[in-house]
Amino acid sequence: MIFSLPGGVCLTLPGILPMPILMKSLLPIFAFLLLLHSTPSSAQQQTFNKRMHLGFPSTVFTSIIATDSCYYVTGIITDSVPPYNDASIFIKFTLDGEPELVKALRDTVVSYSTWAPVLQGISEGNLLLSGQSRDSTTKAILIKYNTLGDTLFTRRYENYGQDGLFIKLKAMAVDEAQSQYLLATEEVESESLNDADVVMTKIGENGEILWRKRLTSNNLNEIPHSAISWQDGSFIIGAQFNNTIVADFNYTCRDYLFAVDSAGNIEWQYLSPAGELRRGATALSPAGDGGLVVASGRGEEFNINPSRNGLRWHSGLVYKLDAQQQLEWEVEFIEPLPNSFYNRFNKIIRASDGSGYLAAGLFVQGIPESLEADLSGWLVKVSPDGDSLWSRALRFFEPQDPYYWHHLYDIKETADGGYIMVGQTEDINGGWQGQQGWLIKVDEHGCLVQGCHLSPVSEAAAAGPRLLLYPNPADDFLNVFLKDSALPRRAGAAFHILDTQGRLLAAYSAGQLEEATHMIPVHALPAGPYLLQYLDRESLLWSGRFVKR
Q: For residues 96-123, b (16+ Cβ closer than 10 Å) or e, as one string?
């Protein structure tokens, strides 16, 4: 199992109120009406929500490239033959999210791990991916693919130091004009186990090393998280300074950004305010006006026991630095949950229409010392002026709840103006079958269930819970958008699925989020009509019907 603790229509028909269970003779008519009203119009953007093993024991999707005709995805699988090494996977998906080509780069001696969302297109239609591999030692790797998933070359790079103990690829940037690449790795030497450093390796078109440089400081970890190409052959690296390995109290955690020129010389540096605990510059996006947009987060220190404190990352943070690296604006996303303790943005991109920036990642509600946590996929949008436009939570449900965790690692804009994301769903009690790759397509408003961004048409509708379902009929998952301003104060809010005889078939907690899209599994249900109820303890708040195809 690949374990990674992180450090795809409205149901209610117009004018029809929730109804009691229909007589059997009316069910075919009702199913036809559902089909009629749930068919998307040609103007709607396609959305879907899929997860899959692709025939491997464990599968994780970490990077995606979107084209007009298909999606290219890379990630990690655990091989099904001894010694069960991790391997890199390459998948070509149709625009409907169906896999049409799957290839794995695997070896009985060498493992390949490509966790970071770093897949990029390069010249001649080829693709470049980086990560780390291990045989007797851990090395950084660079993999060049063609669009058929054939490996054109694989290059492996030793630790920068003479006595390298640890190396982890965190980021890659591509200078397309020069056909050169920058790898940013976190590296540790055996004589300084508590001091991680940033190592930059500039690589030529064929994988040859052009230069390597190490960024060091005393008693602080420098951990890279992100990198992008900039102007005139330069690169920007986003990192974090912290003392969390050497200190048990009074933590230092700061965003650290710096630019290097084509020769690796530092051009400028930026450190976040010393009085704040920052998540690190986990993702970067050019602003288009010479500025830089950064994804990070804020945290707080909390007591674990008399001898040690912990860190709680309670919010997501997006901010912009102008061309002189001065703070222009910032916006903080704080979900209204008292026990939210680990929020992280893994990728940020700029919308092509200039409407703002989208950041994807995850947030966690639960108990830091316990595995009983609810990890939801997270997508937010910020305007060009730093206004929070929306925040979308995406939750899977399984019988093992709350032991199902959900991560979003990468996001790209699609040809129809929507967004495609990849990640994983992870059942931490699931053994070999615990992880599946997650592919999810939303519209331009971040809606998996189209219409989630719209306001109720009346004050009466606004006062109560608002639910939308998609698709209907459903195959694998019934995606339920719920907005209920009273939900954080409810004690036992849940979804119930009933058959046509009123028998309870499944029940799922609605959690604590005032607004979220809940992905409820229905693949085990026989084909036919069903009733979905939303209740608070025994009080029925909403009901409506759906069809399992």
A: ebebeebebbbeeebbbbbbbbbbbeee
Is 3 buried (19+), middle (13-18) or exposed (0-12) by CB count in 10 A?
A: exposed
DSSP code for 68: S
CATH code of the domain in which 466 resides: 2.60.40.1930
Whether 303 is in a domain gets the answer no
Q: What are phi and psi of 96, to 5 degrees?
A: -90, 0
Q: Tell whether omega for the bond before 338 is within 30 degrees of 0, i.e. cis.
A: no
CA 545 to chain centre: 31
Residue 419 burial (10 A CB sphere; 0-12, 13-18, 19+):
buried
What are the backbone dihedrals phi and psi of residue 112, each rounded to the nearest 5 degrees, phi first? -125, 125
Output DSSP code: residue 37: H
Count of beta carbons in the 10 Å neighbourhood of residue 313: 25
Residue-wise pLDDT for 183-231, tens only, equals 999 988 656 566 788 999 999 999 999 999 998 776 688 999 999 999 9
Beta bridge partners of 197: 187
Please calculate the CA angle 348-414-118 and round it to the nearest 5 degrees: 45
Give the other-Cβ count within 10 Å of 187's Cβ. Answer: 22
The tokens 């298909």 sit on which residue? 70
pLDDT digits (tens, 9 = 90+) for 267-298: 999 999 998 999 999 999 999 999 999 999 99
pTM of the model: 0.89
Domain of 505 in residue numbering reads as 24-39+454-548
98: in domain: no
